[in-house]
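Researcher: Please translate sequence to structure tokens.
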Amino acid sequence: MRVANLDPIKRIRRLRELAIAWNPKLKDISPLGELRALTALRLDDTPRVFDLQPLAGLSSLVFLEFSGGIWNKNRVATLEPIGGLPQLQELVLTNLGVESGDLRPLGKCSNLLRLTVSNQFPTEDYAFLSVALANTECSMFAAYVKLQQPLAGKDVMVVGKGKPLLSTARDGPRLARYAAEFAARRDEHRQRLTGL
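Model: Translation complete:
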């Protein structure tokens, strides 16, 4: 839809699931903050939504997707409002830019079971979250991930913004170095977070 004003939606107080896709006009999502019964929310290809603070009060939210589209990246000030959602179990963040804080605020999502996030953030963030969210399933909580389809003979993607695609057959030593670096970062974060 291409609607800038969501005010009428806030009257549907018992609404439990809402998906808004391909809405380049939407900027203000504050009316969504009044939908306290929401358990699932999908904001897909909403490139002008910059402030997620209205979502901070959605304490019943179990599923959230905030993803950019094919041509447009979603951009937000911070992911801090998501970090405070107490019931959140599944989170999808793809084609996304974050102005401050990167992925670290998600470490507060203690009930998160599944995280889907694109490879657009520093390796350090994925290493941190792999420790802070030890019970969360996420393919990016590793040094590298296998590609579904090899590209020019390369079958793995090293985790972290700007990292290369490599071949398990030809780049074994490089992959071993990336794996060792990721493990070292995880150990550092584990020591900081748990004191162990």
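Researcher: Any highlights?
Model: Residues 7-118 form a domain with the Leucine-rich repeat, LRR (right-handed beta-alpha superhelix) fold (CATH 3.80.10.10).
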